[in-house]
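Note to self: keep these together.
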Amino acid sequence: MTCIGCDVVVSTEKKEKIKESAVAIFILAKNNWARVAISSQSAELAYYVLLSLFPILIVVGNLVPFLPIDVDATLPYIESMMPPDIFKVLKPILLQFLNSSSSSAISIGLITAIWSSSKGFNSLQTVLNSVYGTKKRKNFIIVRVVSFLIALAMIVILGGVVFLFVFGEQLIRFIQDKLSLPFDLLTDFTQLKWGGTVIVLTVVFTAIYFLVPNNRWTILYALPGAVFATIGWLVSSQAFSLYVRFGGGNSVGYGTIGIFIVLMLWLYLVSMILLTGAFVNVMVYQYLNGVDSQNVPKKEVEMEKSSKKQRRKLTKS
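Structure:
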């Protein structure tokens, strides 16, 4: 025989637990959102990313002519990654980069890219410390060295992902023609490209959330925000591309100024997704470890409240 009353009690207890969890999550989100300023910090981060973007493009553009890549076959892949109006403005610049190279431009661009990227990662570290509620590292030299190394690693990884997306099929055709491989590498690459991109982005975001902030959380607490940021990055990029293509044509029509505005908006959106991913990590950590928005354990808060009540009773008596 089944106990109908017992089932009702169990379901009621489950509803109460779900309700308590929802209330706790809402309070944590409200308090943390009031503590951080994601909107303004995203604008700051987008500025530094833009500052480091052009030197990186100079380096990549001057390296491409040294590789066995057909420029005319490369342009359609670049065109598929951006709205047509933007590509029309950038096409002459891209052709100039892809058809000529300069060792001095590579050296200057590489130095500028590393410097600006380290500045950008220093800003990212400051912003993430603010979101995580931790203090900035005091040692200036360590901060700069860590920022430099992480920036260099991120440039190599993200640059490799972008390079494979744009030039991967050309390189695979070249390798397959030279080695006369019996299997079709191009088909395998096309099938694995998106899955590989998701994995690489998740690893990159996990590394950012784990290494950049000045805290000692385990790497597991970096995964929720990394998954959120990866999905948000891919979805927002596709959605923003569609918006610019169908709804933002007027702003893009102003040529270079329109391109700059669209680029800044996209970088701002991506920066906001990155910081929101950090916000998700903070929420998960605080909820699972029972701490409040100031990273203080609930037990300590309750003890502090009880001690205050006892003091009040003593003062009244």
